[in-house]
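Database export, one record per block. Field names are fixed; values are copied verbatim from the stored entry.
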Amino acid sequence: MDLSKIGGLLGQLAPTIATAIGGPVAGMAVKALAGALGLSQDASSDDVQTALMNATPEQLAAVKKIDADFKVQMKELDIDLERIAAGDRDSARNMQMQTNDWIPRALAIMVTFGFFGILTWLLTKGVPPTGSETLIYMLGALGTAWTGIVQFYFGSSAGSKAKTDAMVQGEKK
């Protein structure tokens, strides 16, 4: 499945499934998506991708619901998708510290300038009469990439939320 085409949409619509697609339970996530989109359980990831790109509002609502169900299923199976994602980020950070590669920094800078450049352009000049769908799609993809960059360099807010939740629970006792 090519997440560059559907990553932004899937990340906003079904974040749990989007996270799972990048990890070891990708097959389960694709099957869940296939079911929500009315495809057979043995549909290929390309079929699921095509169906998602052409989904009706009803199918998008079904995807959103299946994401909540998938999250519960992962909890029941004791699969912590955030821990898996954090491990992935950690290994990438360790690789970066060991190799001191300039490419991640260059990509981060280019994505940041691209995202905020397009956003500024849209805010000052407005949506162009032609090619607006492509521009909005590109802005969504860059926004998703920028979120990943911020999480890579500064950490995920999930840990912060968990810490806050634990503090609130401690105060109640």
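Remark 1: The chain has two domains: 3-76, 89-158.
Remark 2: The first helix runs from residue 3 to 13.
End of record.
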